[in-house]
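Figure 3 (text version): structure tokens given as input.
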């Protein structure tokens, strides 16, 4: 133990002024502030070489293994111990009041952004728009720059121009389309079903991560170890990423996967089924089959401009432009989303009233009415009936000579 014969490291008194000779031929001097009994480190306080304030001091930590010898320059006394305690700074009451006032103003501004009567989708839409634009609530509608009003259900079709400026209307529609989905998914994740916060997912291998505030996708590898795939804003996106990771690992049929119906949509697990990743280890041959009661096998769309794409297993949206050419808009997971895209594309092309659009009543799409023709009454059946009722034609003279 390092000592000069008079004192050891663990025998130093708090407040004593000591001079320490180091093994690297250096030295240091100061008042002992404390000694760490575990690491045998001496903490010295000394007058600051470059003082910033009147009470500025230099602090130096000297470990025992670096000490060659210790010399006590001045024994401690009550005055020295008191000098080691830095005095509390003076409280600026005016600055505290200013900070309090600013905090109240910030809180009032934040409360003005909330609408207790709006739905989760409406609040999410407002939050997405207010990040870059000046917005305010007008009842249940969102007023953006006094130029555009966004009504319930806060979709692209619900944007109404207040000044007739088409460019500003188009800009707001793009922001609503791009930002609403992400913001709404975050709001739903926070509130859960029915407004209660939930960490459980509707799909296998997906759970809510409170730290990242995103959906976490995991699976068990061939050795039974849990592997994190990533964090996602959308719950279904996380489920699809997990299923793809299982396929890439060659574990399809050996791990529980999320089933999809005939339309390519994910089928949620049964209500009350445990969402345990260890389920992968228990029954490695169990693969969830689609629930026949919820299996949507219909691939015929209920809306205009929407049809089922067999190759991509998604709903395809398209419309006919002013030149009569069919324009492809995109593929969507639901036919409702595809129908909204058709309406928006026709409106952007200036063909509203010239092309058939899907009507919206109270924010809900109205499916088109299909008139079902009874069996035996279609065009083909009528032609067959007409040929059957017509008298047989007389043979031609050439046929008689033969």
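Below: residues designed for each position.
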């Amino acid at each position: 133990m390092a000592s000069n014969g008079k004192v050891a490291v663990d025998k130093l008194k708090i407040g004593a002024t000591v001079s320490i000779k180091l093994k690297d031929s250096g030295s240091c001097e100061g008042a002992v502030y404390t000694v760490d009994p575990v690491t045998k480190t001496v903490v010295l306080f000394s007058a600051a070489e470059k003082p910033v304030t009147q009470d500025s001091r230099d602090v130096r930590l000297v470990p025992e293994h670096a000490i060659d010898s210790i010399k006590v320059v001045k024994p401690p006394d009550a005055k020295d111990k008191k000098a080691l305690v830095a005095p509390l700074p003076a409280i600026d009451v005016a600055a505290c009041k200013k900070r309090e006032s600013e905090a109240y103003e910030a809180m009032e501004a934040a409360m003005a952004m909330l609408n207790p009567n709006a739905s989760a989708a409406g609040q999410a839409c407002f939050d997405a728009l207010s990040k870059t634009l000046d917005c305010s609530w007008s009842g249940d509608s969102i007023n953006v720059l006094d130029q555009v009003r966004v009504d319930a259900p806060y979709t692209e079709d619900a944007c109404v121009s207040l000044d007739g400026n088409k460019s500003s209307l188009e800009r707001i529609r793009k922001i609503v389309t791009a930002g609403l989905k992400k913001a709404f998914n975050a709001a739903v994740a926070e509130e859960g079903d029915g407004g209660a916060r939930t960490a459980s997912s509707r799909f296998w291998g997906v759970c809510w991560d409170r730290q990242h505030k995103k959906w976490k996708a995991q699976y068990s590898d061939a050795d039974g170890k849990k592997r994190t795939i990533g964090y996602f804003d959308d719950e279904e996106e996380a489920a699809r990423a997990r299923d793809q990771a299982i396929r890439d690992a060659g574990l399809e049929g050996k791990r529980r996967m999320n089933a999809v119906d005939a339309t390519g949509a994910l089928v949620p697990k049964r209500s009350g089924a445990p969402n345990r990743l260890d389920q992968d280890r228990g029954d490695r041959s169990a693969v969830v089959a689609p629930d026949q009661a919820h299996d949507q096998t219909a691939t015929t769309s209920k809306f205009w401009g929407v049809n089922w794409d067999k190759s991509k297993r998604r709903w395809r949206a398209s419309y006919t432009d002013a030149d009569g050419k069919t324009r492809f808009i995109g593929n969507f997971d639901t036919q409702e989303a595809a129908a909204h895209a058709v309406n928006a594309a026709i409106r952007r092309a200036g063909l509203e009233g010239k092309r058939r659009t899907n009507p919206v009543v109270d924010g809900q799409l109205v499916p088109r009415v299909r008139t079902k023709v009874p069996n035996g009454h279609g065009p083909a059946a009528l032609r067959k009936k007409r040929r059957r009722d017509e008298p047989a034609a007389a043979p031609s003279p050439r046929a008689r000579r033969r």
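The chain has four domains: 9-84, 100-194, 206-282, 306-365.
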